[in-house]
Amino acid sequence: MIAASSVSLWAAHLWLVALLPMAGAALLALLPAQRLAARLNLALAAAQFGLILALAARGRGPEAALLHLDALNLPLLLLAGVIGVTTALYSAATIRGEGFGPRAGRAYHAAFQVFLGANALALLAEDLGVMWVAVEAATVATVLMVALHRTPASIEAAWKFLVLCGTGIALALFGTIALALAAQPLGEGGATALSFGVLRQMAPEADPRLLSLAFVFLLVGYGTKAGLAPLHSWLPDAHAEGPMAISAVLSGLLLNTALHAILRARAVVSGNPEVLPPGALMLAMGLASVLLAAFALWRRRDARRLFAWSSIEHMGLASMAFGLGGPAALAGMLHLLGHSLVKSAVFFGLGRAIQIKGSQRIAAIGGLAESHPLLGWSLALAILAAAGLPPFVLFASEVLLMQQMVTRLPWLALPLGLGLLLAALALLKVLQALCFGPGRAGVPPPDQRHWLGHPAAEWATLLPLHLHLLLALLLGLALPAAGLALLTEAAGIAG
Predict the structure, then answer these.
(1) How far apart are CA 270 and CA 117, in angstroms?
(2) Residue 187 scores a pLDDT above 60
(3) How is 236-284 classified by DSSP, letter by letter?
(4) I need a labelling partner for 196 at 20 to 30 A (CA). Which of 72, 174, 224, 304 fits?
(5) DSSP states along 332-388
(6) SS3 of 195, please?
């Protein structure tokens, strides 16, 4: 009786992490006051983060129907909680600059909470079908946010996002069905047909051809949402045309969740030695993404598009790390966490700079360190971290990945090194253009309240930005033993 009660409480806790934001979304959709809605949005994100921290404090509990918590999804869930709170804080202080009317403001805050809930559900899902539905719900919420400005460019970006990611989710559905079919001849069906635990047990005896087909479709399908080539082109448009805060959750959360789905599928099919090597397929898509993005970074004139291409490069690096497997999978986990923290920090600073300067073209933002020194130097630090320079965690993950590549697949080390070098140089070039040189005239900031002589929006930008950079620094220099053990266990599941 006590054991059954414990399982029920644990399951309720898991479901509450996902369902609380969705319940809050219903309330936010009814609130006409934008300032009150922004504060409630922040309170709901903080409440979800509190629930996630309570989960982490309790440790991994008993198995619950449809949902589970393990070493692979726990760090990603904690990361989602952090970014949810910091993005909600940034959004609350800068939302006036978006120019939303009452209806658009309600839609924005409701969609933000739907995304946080669906993203958490996708990470916690123990069932492939639940994961597929949750990823689709998160995608629809972000498509809505991208379209909210209702300009021709934002509508086009939202349609491109919907069509390409809709194609990807359809491919992922086919892969999910193929995995279910692989389980049927072995007597697995009904409610457990898509359970990851059940699928991993049956994989060694399943038809390797069906498993290979399933993984290819799941890789390409979820890879579309992860920003991997060749179906990556929705990402720069979505970044460029959506609200400022959407860039942080796209790069920081959605891409990770999609790659997490691929890693779950890989953990299933790799149990059969006769399948197509899943690691080789991930290496190929990852390298293509890295090289394509590294060259594309040199031709961008729009700052938000440029950093969207940088996200494509970093997701390619993570895919390569997990594709290589073994110790390199630890580099992949570090890279996912580091990229999310650093890139969202970049978008916090960049978003504020765009509101101040009135343009997101790189040439129009230049001289930020002269015109707004605190913001300019903070953004410069975030860009250095995104370029993979020490002492931040992306430097550590890239060095570990390159070390493993040289040792195990030396013929791939040269193109990987070329991609890393080109991407880093491109980001250093844009850092010079954005932050240094003569200052450009800006527009009056949309907020009037000041804290300690600075606009409230600037402090709400700088606090999350520096918090993210501090966490990225700690991951790179002083990762606790318990954290390292957790990420090592996660790497064992993923790779």
Answers:
(1) 30
(2) no
(3) HHHHHHS-HHHHHHIIIIIHHHHHHHHHHHHHHHTTSTTS--HHHHHHH
(4) 224
(5) HHHHHHHHHHHHHHHHHHHHHHHHHHT--BHHHH--HHHHSHHHHHHHHHHHHHHTT
(6) strand
Q: Which two tokens stand for residue 162?
A: 């919907």
Distance, CA of 129 to CA of 204 (rounded, Å): 21
pTM exceeding the 0.90 threshold for the entire prediction: yes
In this prediction, residue 387 has a pLDDT band, given cuts at 50, 70 and 90, of very high
- Residue owning tokens 């399908």: 221
C-beta separation of 268 from 203 below 8 A? yes
Interatomic CA distance for residues 285 and 327, integer angstroms: 20
First CA to last CA across the chain, in angstroms?
Answer: 38
CA 56 distance to own-chain centroid: 20
* Residue 127 β-bridge partners: 195
Does 391 sit behind a cis peptide bond, omega within 30 degrees of 0 on the bond before it?
A: yes
Q: At what angle do helices 456-477 and 73-94 cross, to 10 degrees?
A: 160
User: Residues near 297 by Cβ (< 8 Å), separated by ≥ 6?
Assistant: 306, 309, 310, 313, 422, 423, 426, 427, 430
Where does the pLDDT of residue 448 fall: very low under 50, low under 70, confident under 90, or very high at 90 and above? very low
Distance CA 320, CA 405 (A): 9
Alpha-carbon dihedral angle through residues 229, 156, 38, 452, given to the nearest 10 degrees: 80
- Phi-psi sector, 68: left (phi>0), alpha (psi -120 to 50), beta: beta
Cβ-based neighbour number of residue 339 at 10 Å = 28
Task: Enumerate helices (H) and strands (E) in the chain, giving the number of each.
Answer: 21, 2
Which of 67-81, 91-105, 336-350, 369-383 has the least mean pLDDT? 91-105
In the chain, what percentage of residues exceed pLDDT 90? 47
CA atoms within 13 Å, Cβ hemisphere of 272: 27
Domain-wise residue ranges, the chain: 277-495
